[in-house]
C-alpha cells in the first residue's frame, strides 16, 4: 500500500537521456566507470561524515563496492555501502542536472550532433545517466546512513521516473543498489570475464575495494584492492595507471598533458598528485566552477573546496593527502591553517615549474597546453604579482611575425630593433581584425614586432604589468608612438619631423574638431592611411575603453 510518486525529468535531463539512448558511441563501457566512481564518492562521503558521527558506520565500517552479475535475467547490479540517498536527494540528484559541466557539455553536444557528439560522450564523463546507454530500465534502491527509511527510484529513461518507499528488508542496510536491466546488445555485461577486465582497466585505482559476485547469492571475489595510487612509489606506477587514475579524478577521458606526483617533506609533509588535462574542460570559464583539487587527510577525503591552487590554475585536477591535519578538521579551520598556505605555495611552484620544463623539453605538448589554458594562466599576471615575472616568461603571444606559432617575450626582446625601447602591443577581438589595423603601418614599415592580443584578459594584465626584462609594455593605440628614432626598413635614416603642410593640416584639424578630441598630432605610426584614432598616453587603451563602455561603465 506504499504510494508511488511519478516525476517528470527536468528538460535537460530528458534531452541528455535521449542522446544517451540513441548514441552511436561504441565504447559503452564508460557507464561502469561512472557508476563505480559514484559508489566510491558515496563511500568517501560516509567516511567523512563518520569522523564526527562514528555511529553511522554501525557494525559495517569497511567501505566496499560489489558488482553482481545475473546472466539468466540479463541484469547487472552495482551496490555500495556508502552514504546513500534520502528521498529528496534521489529526486534532486537523479532528476535534474546538478553539474554545471554537464550543462555546458549538453550545449556542445547539441551543437556538434551526430558522430562528433558521440565522440564527446566518450571524452567526458556524463555521470549516472550513462547507465541508459546499456539499460532500458534502471532501478535505484537507497538507504541513507542513519535513516530508518529506504527509497526506490525507477525509470525507463523516457521522460519520467517514479519514487516510492520500500521495506527495509528489500534495501541495502546502508548505501545504494543500482540494478540495470540490460539491453539486448549489452548482455555482455553479465560476463565475469568482460566485467572484470573493464573494472581492472578503468577503475583499478578507486580508493575503495571492488568485488564481483558471479551470480545473485554467490560469494563476491575481490578484483581491485582499493589501495590509494598516490601512496605508492613512483617507480611502481605505470603511465597507464596514472592515466586511469586521472580519468577517474578529472571526469575526462583524454590523456593528461602533464602528471605531477611528489612528496613534500620537512616542516609540512604531504603528497600531491596533480594533472594538467589534455583537453579543455567545458566549464573552464564558468564563474561558479569550483577548484578541482581534492584534500585528503590520511587517505580520507575531506573537501574539494580547500582552494589548494590559485584560480588561474583552476584547470589542474588531482589531490593532496596530508597526515599533518587532524581528521576532524573543520572546513573553516583548513582555510586558516598555515599548512594550507604552505601546500598552496609548494603546489603552485611545482605546477608552474613542471609547465616550464614541458616548454623546454616538449615544445609541441606545451603548445597544446598553452592553447587550452593560456588564457586562464594569463589571469595570474594580474592576480599573482609575486609570480608575475615567472608567468610572463611562460606566456606565449601571437605577434605580427609569429606565423609559426606563438612567441615568448624573451624572443621578442632579443629581436627588438635598434632604438626600440618598449614592447608594443595591440588589443582587439580577433586576429584578422588586428592584422588589418592601420595602427600597425608605421611598425611594419620599421620591421617592429607588435603583440596581437585577443583574449579579454589581455586588456587587463597589460595595464598592470609594468615591464618585461626592463622593457615597458606600450599600446600602439595610445599616446605618441615614438617611432621617429627608428629607421624604416630599406631606408638609412630615421624619419624627419613633420613637413610644413602636415603642420598646417594639424592646426586645421584641431580647430575643426575642437572639444571632441584632446589633441591632434603628426605621427610616424602610419605609412599609407591618412589618419587614425589613438587613446591618450595614460588611462585605458582603445580596446579597454570599448570593453568598459560595453560593460556600461
Ligand atoms: P556527479 O557524480 O558528477 O555528481 P552523477 O551524474 O554521476 O554526477 O551523479 C549525480 C549525483 O547523484 C551525485 O552527485 C550523487 O549526489 C548522487 N549519486 C549517484 N550515485 C550515487 C550513489 N551510489 N550513492 C550516493 N549518491 C549517488
Ligand atoms: Mg559521478
TrEMBL record:
It is found in: Cytoplasm. It comes from the Bacteria. InterPro entries: HATPase_C_sf, HATPase_dom, HSP90_C, Hsp90_fam, Hsp90_N, Ribosomal_Su5_D2-typ_SF. ATP binds at residues 34, 38, 80, 85, 100-101, 123-128, 176, 331. It holds the Pfam family HATPase_c_3. Gene3D superfamilies: 3.30.230.80, 3.40.50.11260, Heat shock protein 90, C-terminal domain, Histidine kinase-like ATPase, C-terminal domain. Its main location: cytoplasm. Keywords: ATP-binding, Chaperone, Cytoplasm, Nucleotide-binding, Plasmid, Stress response. GO terms for molecular function: ATP binding; ATP hydrolysis activity; ATP-dependent protein folding chaperone; unfolded protein binding. GO terms for cellular component: cytoplasm. Molecular chaperone. Has ATPase activity. Belongs to the heat shock protein 90 family. HAMAP family: HSP90 (MF_00505). Homodimer. This is Chaperone protein HtpG. The lineage of its organism: Bacteria, Pseudomonadati, Pseudomonadota, Alphaproteobacteria, Hyphomicrobiales. The gene is htpG.
Amino acid at each position: 500500500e506504499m504510494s508511488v510518486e511519478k516525476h517528470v525529468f527536468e528538460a535537460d535531463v530528458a534531452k541528455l537521456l535521449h542522446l544517451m539512448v540513441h548514441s552511436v558511441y561504441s565504447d559503452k563501457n564508460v557507464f561502469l566507470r561512472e557508476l563505480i566512481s559514484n559508489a566510491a564518492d558515496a563511500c568517501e562521503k560516509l567516511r567523512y561524515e563518520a569522523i564526527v558521527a562514528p555511529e553511522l558506520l554501525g557494525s559495517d565500517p569497511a567501505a566496499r563496492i560489489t558488482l553482481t552479475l545475473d546472466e539468466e535475467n540479463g541484469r547487472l547490479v552495482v551496490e555500495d555501502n556508502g552514504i546513500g540517498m534520502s528521498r529528496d536527494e534521489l529526486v534532486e540528484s537523479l532528476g535534474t542536472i546538478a553539474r554545471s559541466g554537464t550543462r555546458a557539455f549538453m550545449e556542445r553536444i547539441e551543437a556538434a550532433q551526430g558522430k562528433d557528439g558521440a565522440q564527446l560522450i566518450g571524452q567526458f564523463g556524463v555521470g549516472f545517466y550513462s547507465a541508459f546507454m546499456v539499460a532500458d530500465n534502471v532501478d535505484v534502491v537507497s538507504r541513507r546512513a542513519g535513516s530508518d527509511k529506504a527509497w526506490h527510484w525507477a525509470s525507463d529513461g523516457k521522460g519520467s521516473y517514479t519514487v516510492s518507499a520500500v521495506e527495509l528488508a528489500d534495501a541495502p542496510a546502508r548505501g545504494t543498489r543500482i540494478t540495470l536491466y540490460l539491453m539486448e546488445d549489452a548482455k555482455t555485461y553479465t560476463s565475469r570475464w568482460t566485467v572484470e577486465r573493464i573494472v581492472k582497466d578503468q577503475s583499478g585505482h578507486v580508493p575503495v575495494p571492488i568485488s564481483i559476485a558471479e551470480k545473485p547469492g554467490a560469494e563476491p571475489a575481490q578484483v581491485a584492492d582499493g589501495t590509494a595510487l598516490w601512496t605508492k612509489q613512483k617507480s611502481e606506477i605505470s603511465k597507464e595507471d596514472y592515466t586511469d587514475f586521472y580519468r577517474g579524478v578529472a571526469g575526462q577521458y583524454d590523456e593528461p598533458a602533464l602528471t605531477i606526483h611528489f612528496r613534500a617533506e620537512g616542516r609540512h609533509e604531504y603528497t600531491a598528485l596533480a594533472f594538467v588535462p589534455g583537453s579543455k574542460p567545458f566549464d573552464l570559464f564558468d564563474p561558479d566552477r569550483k577548484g578541482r583539487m581534492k584534500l585528503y587527510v590520511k587517505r580520507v577525503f575531506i573537501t574539494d573546496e580547500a582552494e589548494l591552487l590559485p584560480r588561474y590554475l583552476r584547470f589542474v585536477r588531482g589531490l593532496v593527502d596530508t597526515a599533518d591535519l587532524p581528521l576532524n578538521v573543520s572546513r573553516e579551520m583548513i582555510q586558516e591553517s598555515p599548512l594550507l598556505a604552505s601546500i598552496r605555495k609548494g603546489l603552485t611552484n611545482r605546477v608552474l615549474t613542471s609547465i616550464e620544463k614541458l616548454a623546454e623539453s616538449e615544445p609541441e605538448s606545451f603548445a597544446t597546453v598553452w592553447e587550452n589554458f593560456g588564457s586562464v594562466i594569463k589571469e595570474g599576471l594580474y592576480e599573482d604579482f609575486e609570480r608575475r615575472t615567472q608567468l610572463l616568461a611562460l606566456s606565449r603571444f601571437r605577434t605580427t611575425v609569429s606565423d609559426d606559432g606563438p612567441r615568448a617575450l624573451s624572443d621578442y626582446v632579443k629581436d627588438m630593433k635598434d632604438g626600440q625601447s618598449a614592447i608594443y602591443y595591440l588589443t582587439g577581438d580577433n586576429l584578422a581584425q588586428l592584422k588589418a589595423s592601420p595602427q600597425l603601418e608605421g611598425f611594419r614599415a620599421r620591421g617592429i614586432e607588435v603583440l596581437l592580443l585577443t583574449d579579454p584578459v589581455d586588456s587587463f594584465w597589460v595595464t598592470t604589468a609594468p615591464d618585461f626584462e626592463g622593457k615597458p609594455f606600450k599600446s600602439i593605440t595610445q599616446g605618441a608612438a615614438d617611432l621617429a628614432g627608428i629607421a624604416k626598413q630599406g631606408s638609412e635614416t630615421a624619419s624627419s619631423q613633420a613637413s610644413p603642410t602636415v603642420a598646417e593640416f594639424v592646426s586645421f584639424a584641431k580647430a575643426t574638431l575642437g572639444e571632441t578630441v584632446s589633441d591632434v598630432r603628426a605621427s610616424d605610426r602610419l605609412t599609407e592611411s591618412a589618419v587614425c584614432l589613438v587613446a591618450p598616453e595614460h588611462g585605458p587603451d582603445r580596446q579597454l575603453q570599448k570593453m568598459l563602455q560595453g560593460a556600461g561603465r
